[in-house]
Amino acid sequence: MENEGHYFITYGFFFPRDYASICFWLHCHENDFEGMRVTIKKPSSIVRVEGLAHNSKSEVINPSTVEISIEKEGHGIHPLALRKPDEKFRRYAKSDYELKPLKELWDKRNSSLFTGQFKFKGKTYPANFGGKKWILFGLGAAKPPWSWEVWTSELLKGQWYLDPLNSSNEKYIKQMTVEN
Q: C or N terminus of the chain, fewer CB within 10 Å?
């Protein structure tokens, strides 16, 4: 997304399985989709790196670099400045993943790939990936980025992704909405 002064670049990391060494319901599950966002002040100054880990946000303001660590088992995303690699967290390099545009996923939002719905600012969005709701160890329906929640804030469901300006008076130049 973009406004006159900033770019808001969101990354989603999909993991087919979220298992730990010791599993109990809701802790271990199929399908996990965690994410992060980089906010860039135009033309090219990084002003914020945010990570989402289990519906909680962590952020670094004016970071010197965009680096993250990801939990080896739970897949929570954290700015590297806040969570250094150790036995539970791994630093990821470009060779560890393949980037695909989130637009590919967005363009499928009205397909059978998704189930359930929620409303944000009067518009309806799909809430979860389809599949079994309950599986062996817990929930199996990951949320797409537009359905992410930040439980440790006053943000509404979907707002972190769909409205990174947090309803300020600034206007978007490019934004993903139901219409596009």
A: C
Q: In Å, how far from its chain's centre is CA 107?
A: 17
- Facing residues of 17 across strands? 30
> pTM of the prediction?
0.84
Pairwise CA distance, residues 99 & 96, whole Å: 10
Q: For the chain (length 180 residues), average pLDDT per consecutive 10?
A: 91 79 66 89 95 90 90 84 86 78 88 89 88 57 88 91 83 67
CA distance 68 to 49: 9
Tokens coding 65: 């670099």
Secondary structure of residue 77 in the 3-state scheme: strand
Report how far residue 88's alpha carbon sits from residue 70's, in angstroms, rounded to the nearest whole number: 9
**Residue found under tokens 């090219």:** 44
Q: To which H or E segment does residue 104 belong? A: helix 102-106
| SS3 at position 165 | coil
